[in-house]
Structure formats: structure tokens, C-alpha cells
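Issue 218. Parser rejects a valid record. Input:
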Amino acid sequence: MDDPKSEKVALFRYGLIATLVLEQLSRGELMRRARELAALHYDIPFSERTTISVGTLLKWARRYRKGGLDALNPKRRKDRGVNRVISPQLAQLIERLKRENPHRTGTTLLRELALSSNDPNSQPLSAATLYRFLKEHGLTQKQLLSPPAHKKFEAEFANQIWQSDMMFGPYIPRPGGGKQQAMLYALLDDASRLVPHAQFYADEGLESLLDCTRQGIAARGIPVRFYVDNGKVYRSAQLARIAATLGILIVHTPPYQPEGRGKIERFFRSVRDQFLASLDLKQVTSMKDLNTRLDAWIQTAYHLPPIWPVRKWRSASIRSIHPRPMFSRAASSRAPPGWPIRSPMVFGSPPNPNRRPLRHPPASTTSNFFTRNGRMAMFETFFGFKKSPFASTPDSKQLFESGAWTQLKARLQFLTDHRGAGLLTGEPGSGKSTAARTWLAGLNPNLYKIVYLHWSSGSALDLLRQLARDLDLEPSHFKGDLVDQIAEAIVRLNKTKKQHPIVVFDEAQLLSHPALEQIPLLLNFDMDSSTYLTLLLIGQPLLRRTLSLQHHEALRQRIAVHYHLEGLSRSELDDYIAHQLKAAGCTQPVFDDTARQALYQATKGIPRKVNKLALTALRLAASRKVSIVDEAVLMDAAAEALL
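Output the parser choked on:
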């Protein structure tokens, strides 16, 4: 009796007939006791019935006397799983009739089955049996007419498939007066969900699409497939001609099947729910301003956790895609102005585990990566680097200790020890976010609760709700209750969990004035003199000018630490270049004095600009077989890097 269900049924049956089998009874006494048992109601296991007949009780008693407890187990049907009413021939007929016309009703089907029966004595099929058969075999109208299921799909490699579409955006001021609707064209990499480029335009014409595509290719390389819908701009002859010249296969979505573009539609939903919903359109002054805010949101919010498109882009590098020359010089000469040329990528070759993964460079420098035989000539190999120097995401363990960084580190340590509010400003690319993340990474997670808010230009209520969610709270619907809710959570973290919260607002120059006015409320705890919250505002110089306004006096007075991060000095730039080259495994000088001087004049010592220009110069020098970067190479690199 291995089946628990059968055992439970057998024990229930034995409990009923025990008084009938444990004693020697006369026929009359046996029947009397059986009638008494049959008159009662029971909770029968695995059955909706509540009564048991006299005959059933006597049958169970006979089976127990012959076979014991095992004889009381429920017996399985020998024809279990086989329909006793619908024969195989009748089942085939029902399936054929239903598939011929899925709209055929059950009543019509029963009538046609009765007319087709050759046996006048056969019992007619009941409606319940027919409906049960149709449902079990997937033959109902709903099951037959439902669209086919779409399985999940994801490209294996970065740049294998790009999706593109257009979204109607908000209304913004038109130059010269009035309003105009912005149109958002976007490109999305299928493997990583990374956005090569997205931009708002004044119209939805072909020129807007071509401009978006050109900038996406310049930033992330050339895709193999371009998956788009059947709109007029995507069916244009000019787009097809450009794609054929660049070696891109355009794939159109089948009509009335938009499910294949679910990823780009999900990106548009994120734009609506996260970017546009938190955007104060009264502060948007032009199309350029709107695109600046969109780019900031993509780089500092969308490309960061929880989906990490940039990391997925790198992990989905195209190891198994090898370039093979396909275009002749004549074909390459027909490329549109400003568009890069590269040989198409061919799939199917097994990956080489000893080969360094190929990464797409900017398309404007793609020609610097290929020799005449079409093989990769990476500048790391040319200069003997062990890893790429001047990385856009520097290793926190190998940060360059400049004078400004030493000063900033001391102020951040003061802020950690004494708590309160701090302000960090600097030009774009000066290293503000890198410094903040390095500082936070050195804190003990058991003693500090880190809340890092990336870019928020929404209303004050949106700001408070975002902070509440990061504090693991369910935000209230009212601003006053929300401030109290956050304050209670901050006090609870300090007193109960012994964790001090540190809140960092990055890109704080984008915060609206009402949002900035809410920050002093977070620092105002009336219960005692303890400082329960440390707050750091990070932004561009515009943030300092905003805080200098009279109605931000309360916040400005609470700022205990303020530092403006400048670029590298001329002497620090030389040390920084040597530090980067040494970290990459190179001890020989690569940039001569004239190149370093030109590098400083072009970048003013801003680290991000220095990294971009130095990396571009190394690529150009490797393509020209020049072991020393001089002023001429660097000036060409400056023109190519748009500096």
C-alpha cells in the first residue's frame, strides 16, 4: 500500500465496516447494522458524496474477509485514459469537422455526427462528453483560433541584431514661438539591451532616421542585422542602398505581428515611465535641451543596474564573428559621405579561446583596426600593452592620486566622520562620479546604508518617492506623509540596525527647484541634536549657481563640505599619462613633449577628455605604424574625437 491516497481510502472504509467484520453476526444483525451505517452522512476522502449504500458496505465487508486491508484499496479502471463513448474513428471525424470550421458550434457538431452515424441503434453523444473531448484535445474555438505562442529570443552576440523604431514624444517649445511634438528615434542592441543611440527630432522623416542610425554606428560599430517594422522610412530605397553598402541585412517584422519588437517597445515604456514621467517640461527650452537630458538619463540611469546593458554588451562580445573582406574598392567608394565601411560579419566559425574578444571601436576609427589582409591589428599588441590604458571605467585600485583627488578624499573623510551635507561640483568628465563611487566602495556596508540616486529631474514628490523606494519603503501618496515616512526610516536605521544612511544625488544640477527645497526637510530632525543622515550633492557648476539663489538659503547653510573638482594641471598630466601607461604594462615613453602639450591644450586636463583623446591617438599611431605619438598624430586624433 505505497499510495497515500489509496491507504487513506482503505482506512476510511475499514473504519465503517469494522463493526460488521470483527464479530460473528447473524444475517439479521448484519443487515440491521449495515442499515444504521448507511443512514449516516460521512466526509468521504477524495469524493463529493456523503452517503454509502447498504450493498456497498456489505461488498467491502466481503472483500475484507477475503483479502484483508489491501482488498479495500480502490481499484483502478482497466480502460483508464481511454474514452469508452468516443471510438477512435469517431474522434478522427470530430477533429476533422472542427478543424475544417473552428466556428462550428457544439450543437451543430452533434447534429452532423448524428446524421453521419451508420448505426441506428447507437446512443447519441452527449453535449458534456463532446465539450470535454474538444477541450482535452485542444479543439475548442478559442484554442484553434488563438495566435501561436512566441518563444523568447535573444541574439547571441553584441551587434548581431539591432532593433529600431519611432515613438511620439512630448510637446516642447518651437523656435520662434508655439509648440512642436518631438519624435524619438532609437536603436537597441538585441543581445545586451544597450542603446547605441536615441534622439528626439522635429519630424519623423527619413533624414531623422538616417541621422540616428549614423550616430549609433559611429558610437557602437556596424550591426549585422537591422530589425525594423514596415513603415515608409524603413522601406525606403535610400536606407536599403546604405545598408547594402555597409553590409547590413534589413529584416522587416511580418505584418500584424508586432511581438518581435517587444524589446524596443519595452525601452520606449521605460522612457515614458522613468524619463518623461519625471521630466518637468516647463524647464525644457529646446530640442537640444531635451536630447541632453535624454542622453544623461540613458548613460546614468538606463545603462546602470538592475539591467547593466553596458556589462552585457561587453560579455556578449563577438568572439565567433570574424571579418571577411567582401567589398571591392569600387563598392566601398559608393558609401554615403560620413558612413563607415567594414566587411560583413560571418557566423558559424567556432570561437578561439586563446583569442582576445573583439570589441567594436567607433566606426570613424574602424579602418585603424584592420590591416590589408583583413586581420585585427589591435593597438595593445602594437605597443605591447597588457591591457588597454585610458579606460573609460578606471580601476578604483589604480586611481591616479592627483592633488585635487587628495584634497577631495580628505573632505569626504571629514564628511564620513562628522556627517551632514556635502557639495561636490566640477566640469563634465572631471571625475566626480568616479570619486564618489570610490569613496562609497571603501565604506563598511554593515555600518552604512548607501542610497545612490542617478539623475532625477522630476517633481519633488517623485524625488521623495524614489528615495523611499531605495530605503525599502512603500511610498505614501501625500508629500507630508512621505517626508515623515522617510524620516522615521532614517531614524530606525540609525537606532535599530546601527546603520548610518548616506544619500548621494548624482547629476543634481538637473533637480528642479521644488525638489531641492525638499532636501533640507530630510536633514531637519527635531527630536535631538544627532545627525542621522549624510547627504552628498554632485553636479556641474550650474548647481553652485542654483544654490546661490535666495530661496535655497536653507540648503546652502546646511552644506558643511564643498569642493570644486578641477582638471589636472600641466605637470599632473605628464604623471597621469605615465601612470596609465605603467598600469597597462608599458614603461617606455609613448607621447612626446609636443603631444603632451597639445593634449593638455585640447582637454584642459579633464580626465575623461584626456582618456578619449589619448586612446584615439594610440589607435591612429598603431594604424600608421608609429611607435611615438607626436603633435601631428594627436591633432588628427583631436579632430576625430570631436574635441
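Fixed in the parser; the record now loads. The two ends are 83 Å apart (CA to CA).
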